[in-house]
Amino acid sequence: MRRLVIGLLVLVGLFVAVDFGAAALAESAVSRQMREQIGLVDDPAVRINGFPFLTQALSGEYSSVDVQASRIRVGELQDVSITAQLRDVTAPLSMLLASGPKTLQVDEAEGTVRIPAEDLERQVPGIDDLRVETIDEDALEQAVDDGADPSLAQIDPDTAARLVGTSSLLGQDVEVSVIAVLELVDGAAQIVPRDIRLGGSDAPALPSAVQQELQELFTLRIDPGSLPFEVTPTTLQARNGALELSGTASNLVLGATTAP
Question: Which pTM value belongs to this model?
């Protein structure tokens, strides 16, 4: 009995090793294909979800595939990163493991494009060390109490952000704090300043004429162009020190038959 148990454990171990090995080969093949198709600097990280892999591979149908890619140049942006989950993917194992181009049929893709603060900083002349921060209702109400326009308290915090950076004023570095509304206009990210303070978020409100002049400086429209996986952005939020555009796409064909 003991030998039987040991034998079964060895067989299970071998099966798991083979399964993970086959999955790794397939993931590597998909990664190389996506690097060429999207024009990436590095191979993206690809993970085929679900166990066992070989069961999915024999049918050529995969419930979900996770993709992560970084250092992507899109339009004026130089360091975009992307995470995507491809659902209900069809790709025969023989094609994945063979040499040559790969083609994946995807029923649905959900993706997020991350624009770091460094990319935003390049769009605002005279601003250094830019940070992107989330903001909540209490902070909006506090800004109103400190002299901001009362309409600021009506903003949805999920569609707003605080941008903080430094600027040289009369030879001295001054902290600039901006509360802005985040909008999606025709697929482009738009940053619309609503309150600007010099000297930190708790500094006194500026005169309206000065506010208007500075608002023009911080009003940004960032067009990410044609996003990988044909994802159409539907939400724009500040998260984890960056701006994130998220959206979905459906009925995709990724690979050799995809138009450039």
Answer: 0.79
